[in-house]
Design goal:
With 259 residues, this protein is an alpha+beta fold. Helix content is 33%, strand content 16%. The chain has helices at residues 11-23, 64-84, 123-127, 129-141, 208-219, 222-227, 231-245, and strands spanning 32-34, 40-46, 51-57, 88-89, 92-96, 99-103, 108-109, 151-153, 159-161, 186-187, 200-201. The strands form three sheets. A five-stranded antiparallel sheet has the order 1-2-3-6-5, with helices on both faces. The chain has a four-stranded mixed sheet with strand order 4-9-8-7. It has a two-stranded antiparallel sheet with strand order 10-11. The chain is globular and about 50 Å long. Residues 1-9 have low confidence and may be disordered.
Length: 259
């Protein structure tokens, strides 16, 4: 059993393999350049019965090759982590240290639901099981960038998240751009001068069973992180999860205690 057992058996691995196979075939329409990507050139590839998203990192990334590789590593590992928390992401095939190809998830993107930058995500999304589990994942991977362009709802109205380039920072406490999904777990008080104070973890309604289930799923990803030389990222995530788990006061399992 490999790390993909953390995401409903071999489902994620099979989806990545399908992306790789499809990417090896020519598109059936002219590639379409997508806007919104600040760090990567993002292109929609249309095939006969599916679509893919290609992201190519280059000169726009400050910090050179090391930062490009960090972002590509984050984009490769982030979807695995989010799905380990029970929330859908885009299966991601890593082509090289500068290129990834992902599933395109159909549905509504966040800005079709809440105006971009409005901080007005419907409360039923934030308070739903998917929203709370996404928020937990964001706290653990320390992702400050969950704007309306990188989350959405699929045709079944299940939440999904994409774009993990800002996750796994070298230094924590980076929720300077408020990520609304973390509000069930994190508070940053406002100082007298209007600046944000230090991050504080708050009591949450996770169950101890959910914390234990998520921990087991993350531990199952060890080989995937190690293969990219990112074992420290996983160890940091587990420490963060344990810290959040100390504030878990809930009694209802959202994940169902499944490994």
């Amino acid at each position: 059993s490999g790390p993909e057992t953390a995401t409903a058996g071999d489902d994620y691995a099979s989806r990545v393999a399908a992306v790789e196979r499809l990417a090896a075939t020519p598109p059936t329409a002219e590639p379409h350049r997508l806007g919104g990507g600040q760090m990567a050139d993002t292109t929609l590839l249309t095939h006969a019965d599916s679509r893919l998203v290609r992201k190519l990192y280059g000169r726009r990334v400050p910090g050179g090759k090391a930062e490009i590789r960090r972002q590509v590593d984050a984009e490769t590992l982030g979807p695995l982590v989010l799905e380990a928390f029970g929330v859908r992401s885009a299966a991601t095939h890593r082509v090289s240290d500068t290129e990834i190809i992902q599933e395109h998830i159909d549905g509504q993107i966040g800005w079709d639901i809440a105006p971009f930058g409005s901080a007005s995500i419907p409360q039923e999304i934030l308070d739903g099981d998917d929203g709370r589990l996404m928020g937990l994942a964001e706290v653990v991977i320390e992702n400050p960038d969950r704007n309306e362009g990188n989350w959405g709802q699929d045709p079944d109205r299940r939440l999904f998240g994409i774009d993990f380039g800002e996750a796994f920072p070298a230094v924590g406490g980076r929720f300077s751009v408020p990520n609304p999904f973390v509000a069930h777990y994190v508070r940053r008080p406002v100082n007298r001068d209007g600046t944000l104070g230090a991050e504080e973890l708050i009591d949450n309604d996770l169950s101890p069973g959910d914390v234990a289930s998520v921990r087991a799923r993350l531990e199952a990803l060890e080989s995937r992180f190690a293969a990219l030389g990112r074992g420290p990222w996983l160890r940091r995530m587990l420490r963060r999860l344990d810290q959040v788990g100390k504030h878990a006061k809930g009694t209802r399992d959202r994940i169902g205690g499944q490994p």
